Amino acid sequence: MTDYNYIDFFGFLAALLTTIAFLPQLYKTWQTKSANDVSLIMLILFLIGLICWIIYGLRINSIPILVANIITFIFNFSILILKIVYSKNNH
């Protein structure tokens, strides 16, 4: 295994783990129809950070960074949408 492949392995592993880490929160939010325990400010800041990572990944042509952050963006944007929808339904 060359150094490049060895480094890419860790990139893809990090991408996988940090991306799937949000699935339990997304599932819980969808199941309970509540996102009261999720901070709106945290979601917004995190989404802005993900946009920055996506731009960075594009500029350096990094597939692991792009894939992980695009998927993570989708998961977290979904949580944000559910938070907004469920908070409107509870009022």
Walk me through what this model shows:
- The protein is mostly helical.
- The protein has a single domain, classed as Monooxygenase, CATH 1.20.1280.
- Helices cover 84% and strands 0% of the residues.
- The protein contains four helices and no strands.
- Helix 2 packs parallel to helix 4 and helix 3 runs antiparallel to helix 4.
- The protein is elongated.
- The termini are far apart.
Give a topology summary.
Elements lengths: L2 H18 L2 H10 L7 H21 L2 H27 L2
Helix pairs in contact: 1-4, 2-4, 3-4
Helix content: over 70%
Question: Average pLDDT value?
Answer: 89
The CATH class is Mainly Alpha
CATH architectural label: Up-down Bundle
- End-to-end separation: 57 Å
Task: List the total number of helices.
Answer: 4
Rough outline: elongated
Report the structural category. mainly alpha
The structural domain count equals: 1
In terms of DSSP E residues, the strand content is under 5%
Note the main sheet. none
CATH topology: Monooxygenase
Rg is: 15 Å
What kind of assembly state do the chains in view correspond to? single chain
Order of helices and strands: HHHH
Care to count the β-strands?
A: 0
The stretches of 5 or more residues where confidence is low (pLDDT under 50) are none
